[in-house]
Write a structure and sequence with these properties.
9-stranded antiparallel beta sheet; 287 residues; 25% strand; 10 helices
Length: 287
């Protein structure tokens, strides 16, 4: 998988002055566009679109300092429809406009080319199972929150704190399928998975029962799920599990992610500092 991903990175380098179709990159990596975006974000720590933008502006920065072409020619070659749009993007990355950079020879920011390598540590193993599930229903309360990669998500914390104990008790009684009890469900994430982009959050249960009208439902079609378990400090252990799934498990197993909700079942310790957790991710076999 990593070799094919590196071939896709080389394809980007050869086409920095052309339109780059993510579907073409996915074909080179022999995976789905959805999985490629998620895999890249987990491995690189930034969305694929952001990496391409930063590589283009790195190359454009060198051309600006070289002084051999007009700023407009450089802007157009790198996909900007006007000098103003190029100047805004250039300043956002480099902290200085292209005209000033050319006049003063200012120091610019560089985004290095990425190459992915597998580091084998062998210090830990990952507990998981893969199972097929028929269609099921998520039922609970829903809100829209920003994506947070590290640390507490205050929007989710505030939302959950506002749910009455009576409502939580009613929810618990509806739970009749795995994962049992109240779960956190994230759906409709931005394909880039960039920090701060919005997602649907459900504080909910998995059920086959009739759902009261005051609750929101999400119908989830039949499919295959990979279920990962972890124990440790909250929220670090859970966030590191998500990272490890994409940086270690997917490259080593014949599965890829597919569109669908992510489900997290968490059971906190008495002091709420640690938790046992299950992470359910929708997957499909490669090939």
């Amino acid at each position: 998988m990593l070799d094919r991903l590196n071939e896709a990175m080389e394809h980007i380098e050869r086409r920095l002055d052309q339109a780059i179709d993510v579907a073409d990159l996915a074909r080179i990596a022999t995976t789905s566009e959805y999985h490629l975006r998620r895999m890249f974000s987990a491995l690189a720590g930034m969305p694929l679109s952001e990496y391409i933008r930063r590589r283009r502006l790195t190359v454009a920065g060198a051309e600006v300092l070289a002084g051999q072409e007009s700023l407009l020619d450089i802007a157009v070659r790198h996909g900007y429809g006007s000098g103003e749009a190029f100047a805004r993007a250039f300043r956002a990355m480099h902290g200085v406009g292209p005209g000033e950079a050319r006049r003063t020879g200012a120091a610019l920011v560089s985004q290095p080319r990425l190459t992915f390598r597998l580091t084998v540590e062998g210090s830990s193993s990952m507990r998981y199972r893969v199972l097929d599930r028929p269609e099921f229903t998520v039922a609970g309360l829903k809100t829209r929150v920003p994506l947070v990669h590290a640390g507490p998500n205050r929007a989710i914390i505030d939302f959950v704190r506002g749910i009455s104990p009576g409502t939580l008790e009613r929810l618990e009684k509806l739970s009749d399928q795995e994962p049992q009890g109240i779960v956190a469900v994230c759906d409709d994430l931005d394909p880039s998975r960039a920090e701060g982009t919005d997602l649907d959050y459900y504080h909910a249960v998995i059920t086959s029962a009739d759902v009261p009208d005051d609750l929101t439902t999400l119908s989830v079609p039949a499919g295959t799920w990979a279920v990962f378990t972890v124990s440790g400090p909250v929220p670090r252990a859970i966030q590191e599990l998500w990272r490890d799934v994409f940086t270690e498990w997917f490259p080593s197993n014949p599965y890829r992610s597919r569109p669908g909700p992510e489900i997290l079942r968490t059971r906190l310790s008495a002091d709420k500092a640690e938790a046992d957790a299950e992470l359910w991710l929708p997957v499909e076999r490669e090939g």
